[in-house]
Amino acid sequence: MESEAQHIGFFRNLFTLTEIIGILCVSLTGVWIGYFRKGFAWRSNPSVEFNWHPFFMVLGLVFLYANGALVYRGFRSERKKKLKVIHMSIHLGAFFFSVLGLVAVFDSHNLADKPIPNMYSLHSWMGLSVVILFACQ
């Protein structure tokens, strides 16, 4: 039979691996946008402003959201009140970056030389629904 210490060690290793993969995912998204999609800009260049959208969505709805969900499991020895504050803070960060990602995509559509219609695809409707439902949660 395996001991509880072995289970904890396995979980710690798996948790560390998922953190590394998450950081790698955010980093590679930034590298992809910086190198292959001509970098980042805000309202000064609406065609490049769109590039913030995938970066902020990966950061908020993939990395931070997952970390917020794992706080209770990864840090069982901490006080519950402290974990609740950490959980809330990480989820607020995830929501903040998700909203910034939405601002970036709407700005890039509205400020383009030839404005692009908003909410024209299933992706846009599903994405907005996800952020709204996340806010409701």
UniProtKB/TrEMBL annotation:
It is a multi-pass membrane protein. The keyword Nucleotide-binding does not apply. Gene3D superfamilies: 1.20.120.1770. The chain crosses the membrane at residues 12-35, 55-73, 85-106, 118-136. Keywords: Electron transport, Heme, Iron, Membrane, Metal-binding, Transmembrane, Transmembrane helix, Transport. Residues 17-137 form the Cytochrome b561 domain. It comes from the Eukaryota. One of its GO terms (cellular component) is membrane. It is found in: Membrane. Coiled coil: none annotated. Its cofactor is heme b. Its main location: membrane. InterPro entries: CYB561/CYBRD1-like, Cyt_b561/ferric_Rdtase_TM. The keyword Electron transport applies. This is Cytochrome b561 domain-containing protein.
